[in-house]
Amino acid sequence: MSDFSALLDKHEETIAHHTGFTKVKDQLFGDFWGSVKSLGAWGGDFVLATSDKGAQETKEYFASKGLKTVLSYKEIIL
User: Which end of the chain, C or N, has fewer beta carbons within 10 A?
Assistant: First the structure.
């Protein structure tokens, strides 16, 4: 997971550098402990987040930001 998260962070940094856009994590989730990557066009409706904390704690974090739909990897992929 740490390698995957590092790649997400690097991709966000590269895209931000080339587009001049602010990373979604910096804009909205600066206090999140994991990685956050914008999906689709930047400013889109979805993000991919990684977390080394439990599912419940992660869902509670995003709920506190007003985001009620949080899907796990298993819910999306399997």
Answer: C
